[in-house]
UniProtKB/TrEMBL annotation:
This is CobN/magnesium chelatase domain-containing protein. Residues 2-247 form the CobN/magnesium chelatase domain. It holds the Pfam family CobN-Mg_chel. PANTHER family: AEROBIC COBALTOCHELATASE SUBUNIT COBN, MAGNESIUM-CHELATASE SUBUNIT CHLH, CHLOROPLASTIC. InterPro entries: CobN/Mg_chltase (IPR003672).
Amino acid sequence: VDLDEPLEQNYVKKSAVELREQNAENPEARVFGPPPGKYNTNLTDIISAGQWENEKELIDDYLNNMSYAYMRNQKVKRSVKTFSENIRKINLMSQIRDSSEYHIMDLDHYYEFTGGLARTYEELSGKKANIYIADTSSKKIKVDTIEKSIKEGAITRTLNPRWIKGLLVHKYHGGQKIAEKIENILGLAATTHSVDNWIWDKSYEQYFENEEIREALIENNRFAMMDIIKNMLQADQRGYWDASEEKIDNLKKLFLELENWVEMTY
């Protein structure tokens, strides 16, 4: 920012000058994050609780928690306008995966940070974000759009009978992991708008129409199955899944059966 260069050659300086003219706070700031002492947002808690009314709540939480500018001399200041204007100028977003153990839907932090940024950009710019996922877990680096990455994760893991049955070998914990994946898909749908309808249809097919898997999951962890149902019902209610009335009725019926079991048992 302090270099004696023409604005056309120094984009950082050009941006800082423009922000200064808009009376933005700390216009030279380029590194943003949560406030000192905190490393995340509340997005995962909001998605998990399921009490949010609309996506604006997700955007507001992301901005409120990620708009702290980290500058020289360990100076940290909340700079919402500067952060927002920098987001508005984004052309491309990227997320690196460095481990084969975790795919895009295996961790809630992917939708929390990449998704939170994408949804905020969409709100501020009026355009859908271009998001690319770089898989660096092997020598051959692969870069895909987030849509393709979500599709790959769904086919190879969440919708893969061998993967599902492998998890269900682990009593209680296996069902819990599956439920977490479905919740993460809901989080990705809400923040990136990149989860296709067929993923929800196939999830229903695998976990509810497939009697062997359905009964094994219930036996493994009834509470996890209830969480899966709640998140799939949410996906339909929030417009991320165009489910038939029959599917919704079946989900509600099974949920009531499981709820009755819980009440009688506990």
